[in-house]
Design a protein that fits this description.
Blueprint: E1 4-6, E2 11-15, E3 18-21, H1 22-44, H2 50-74, H3 77-82, H4 97-115, H5 119-143, E4 158-160, E5 167-168, H6 171-193, H7 201-217, H8 235-261
Parallel strand pairs: 1-4
Antiparallel strand pairs: 2-3, 4-5
Helix pairs in contact: 1-5, 2-4, 5-6, 5-7, 6-7, 7-8
Length: 262
């Protein structure tokens, strides 16, 4: 069976020594798309859009620092503890979505403290464009031929020639398309049901959907952790479990609060 061949250069273009990577382009698109979405949300709800510029800075810093530290500590701690200066070498690659998510949660905590907002209120809104962010970032991973899947002979399997000559699950596309679907679901939930939902429900739904996808895709994804483990599930799956639990708790509390009101 002939499979689709993927051999794109991860460098989109260059100007002398300056190289622009496809991943960087998609990361920028993801970030700006999220900002535009939040501008729309603030406009719909009559909030001061001037606060978004500050939130944008908080989130970007939280994503980058959290994702980098998450990769270093969760996926290859021995190497980075032995070479601590390499933690700052972001250009060499290595960002973990679980760490990025944790970084955003912390960044937004400080943001709402400064502007005296409801924490769950802002998380419900930010969760929606975050799913769109994941869609674009995983496309960037696909362009880079990274976060590849395990070997497969399925008709839609792809040969990433920059890695090897094996046909593999396009794990990045599985996640990317799933995140796009989750973005659409959350947007519809926000537009149609927001008036009957308590704070925390949308964010809880986001956590369950996103990390369920992440947990399932890990079964056909090449393990990223540099260390071996006797546990049957991967590092990515272990890190997903706390987020799944948090999502379930938030939905439960939101529904219980609604029952008390009725």
């Amino acid at each position: 069976m002939e499979h689709f061949i993927w051999s794109l250069d991860p460098i989109a273009f260059s100007f002398g020594p300056l190289r622009v990577f496809w991943y960087g382009i998609f990361f920028a698109i993801a970030t700006l798309s999220g900002l535009q979405y939040m501008k729309w949300v603030y406009s719909v709800e009559g909030k001061d859009e001037a606060m978004l510029e500050s939130m944008f800075i908080y989130i970007v810093i939280g994503i980058v620092i959290g994702a980098r530290l998450g990769h270093c500590l969760f996926y290859d701690p021995a190497y980075y503890l032995a070479n601590p200066m390499k933690i700052f070498a972001v250009w060499e690659g290595g960002l973990a979505s679980h760490g990025g998510g944790t970084g955003v949660l912390l960044a937004l905590y400080f943001y709402v403290k400064k502007y005296k907002l409801n924490y769950l209120w802002i998380l419900d809104r930010v969760a929606i464009p975050t799913a769109l962010f994941g869609f674009f970032v995983r496309l960037g991973n696909f362009m880079n031929s990274e976060i590849i899947g395990t070997p497969s002979d399925l008709p839609w399997a792809i040969v990433f020639t920059r890695v090897d000559d094996l046909s593999r699950h396009p794990a990045q596309l599985y996640e990317s398309l799933s995140y796009l679907g989750i973005f659409i679901i959350l947007t519809l939930l926000y537009r149609i049901k927001l008036h009957v939902l308590n704070n925390g429900f949308i964010f809880g739904t986001f956590l369950i959907l996103i990390f369920s996808v992440r947990f399932l895709v890990e079964f056909v994804k090449v393990k990223q952790a540099a260390y071996s483990s006797e546990i049957l599930i991967s590092t990515g799956q272990m890190l997903s479990l706390p987020f799944l639990l948090l999502g379930a708790v938030l939905i439960f509390l939101s529904l219980r609060k609604r029952q008390k009101k009725s």
